[in-house]
Amino acid sequence: MSIAITIDHGAIADNIRALRARAAGAQVMGVVKADAYGHGLIEAGRAAREGGAAWLGTAQPTEALALREAGDEGRILTWLYGPDGPFDRLIPAGIDLSVGSLKVLEAIAAAARATGEAPRLHVFVDTGLGREGCPIDLLPALLDRAKELQDAGTVSVVGMWSHLAWADRPGHPTIDRQAAVFATALDMAAERALTLEVRHLANSAATLTRPDLHFDLVRPGIAMYGCPPVEDPDGALWGLRPAMAVTTRLALVKPVHAGQGVSYGHEYTTDRETVLGLVPVGYADGVFRSCGGGRAEVAVRGSRYPIAGRVCMDQFVIDLGPDTEATEGDEVILFGPDGPTAQEWAAAAGTIDYEILCRFGGLRPKGEA
């Protein structure tokens, strides 16, 4: 494969430090789900710890177990499973578990009895996202049963949490509405004498823009990898820097005459004598076909060039202009610190930077730093 995906683990550690400064008074959980958004689960987890992350978070329990197997001894929370989750492995590993339904709670309790250990539970409340978590109307029954199991020594309820739907739109009315529902849920826990070690609601965007919602713990994901989820009013990207760069090298540089059609369908035609550069990656390598036609840019020798014509399966073309000094073998930056951003590529592809990172990061050979 001609494409290269490189990860700056120092940037991840520095981003965690910047987020810790923003969340003074609250601990930070580095969210490393989905192979750390394509940045490498184990390596990104280590970088987050180096930056001071007190917690790591994974959606999939297999990733939480992989962190333990790699030697991580800190707090880890995992949350995406049904009643058939691998609780018999998670509990002995000391991994904190999320619970959002009675059925999952009973499954965890059964595994706890079998292992003879009381797992640490975080009650997941659906405050309005409509995805994971227990609806507020069903929460009293879930809390009552959790309290019974805690009193019996079967489980230990240590946390309550939820997730925001519109935090990347500061000022959106759903944020305050969800915060109010979360406050009600916390009151319900207090009424049952459930003493919570950690209350957590803030994702990346709320970590940066809503200090009133930091509580005991914040859970930055995309920001940890240097992609701001909201615009920085100071224009300084919140002190974050991108950790992923995607590059390749020019395979061919050649002069052409005016009127030369470029790539399938000749959707681009040169309007002067110029020099074309062949970039040896395409949609088989993760480049969105929709980024053709000048919608996405790449950087060569410090200058940017739009994609000329269609993106093909394993290549696309850029018009370098008549006076270029570019030559075969020059580095081409699709996105990264010295070129376009993942956000710019997302805009060109009609998606979000989360998908850009996961799409290209997924091309990395597993275990490659």
Q: What amount of the residues lies in strands?
A: 15-25%
**What helical percentage do the residues reach?**
25-40%
Can you tell me the CATH superfamily of the largest domain? Answer: Alanine racemase
Number of domain units: 2
Uncertain runs: none
Number of helices: 11
Which CATH top level class of the largest domain fits?
Alpha Beta
The CATH level-2 architecture of the largest domain is identified as Alpha-Beta Barrel
> In whole angstroms, how far apart are the ends?
17 Å
The count of β-strands is 19
Order of helices and strands: EHEHHEHEHEHEEHEHEHEEEEEEEEEEHH
Secondary-structure-based class equals alpha/beta
**The CATH topology of the largest domain:** TIM Barrel
Function: Catalyzes the interconversion of L-alanine and D-alanine. May also act on other amino acids.
Protein name: Alanine racemase
Domain Alanine racemase C-terminal: 243-367
Family: Belongs to the alanine racemase family.
